[in-house]
Amino acid sequence: MILSCPRCSARYALSEAQLGPSGRKVRCKECGNTWFESPHPPQPPVKVVAKPPKAEAPPPKPEPAPEPAADPFAHLDAPEPPQDEPFQEEPWNPEPPADDFDQAMAGAARFDSEAEEPRHPRIPRLPRVPPETKKPSRIGWLLILLLIVGLVAGGYMGRQQIVAAWPPAALAYEKIGLAVPVPGDGLLIRNVRVERLLEGQALILVVEGEIANLSEDIQPVPMMRAALRSTERKELQDWLFEADAPTLEPGGITGFRTEFVNPSGEAADIVVTFSATGQM
């Protein structure tokens, strides 16, 4: 669709997805005029009449299978029936009993020798050897000690960056006697307002607010940081900017304004804080 500026008649090409279903406020890139543009009403859909499907012809009936022809040589391959053979009875000849005691003992000795199994030699059991236990080397203990020392030194030297990224860490440093100044201590960020503008093809996010000095001393205003977060509170985009005044008197108030071009479409909220990366 084509947008036209009411003041200078400048024309811009814009898609309906960028304008949104409820419209949005746009700003002319030529003269700076701002107006609210509503989407055009949707056109009625065109009715399409579908033709009825053609009736299909029924499938042909299957033909019956032909019967198998009779085999004229089937009687030649048939086996002949078995014929009964005459039974012949064999005479029974019992073994004569042993004549003497020696023959009976010889048969018993022969039976015992056939039934006896051969004996195999046994393998003696070897004594069990306990597994070797490896003792921790001195190099391993030295590496662990160096790792602990490095973590402690990093936590001490970078305490300001840690507190800036996670402010509750300041309480832990305070309990061990290492007070860490929090960026913007004594200053309050309030009345944060967010507005979206469309300039040409670019979507601009405008963030405005106030900074108040609640302390009784003159406070420097540090660098400020804005972060866009998703619905899961995960940071998507962030940037740094400066406030309107470098310092604030006791009870003084100053404002800030920043613009960000083409913010992420997954952004759900914005967080504005003071940054420890630098002072104004």
UniProtKB/TrEMBL annotation:
Location of the region described as Disordered in the Swiss-Prot/TrEMBL record: 32-131
Pfam families tied to this protein: Zn_ribbon_4 (PF13717)
Name of the protein this chain belongs to: Zinc finger/thioredoxin putative domain-containing protein
Residue stretches of biased makeup (Pro residues): 55-69
The keyword Transmembrane appears for this protein: yes
Stored NCBIfam families: MJ0042_CXXC
Keyword terms: Membrane, Transmembrane, Transmembrane helix
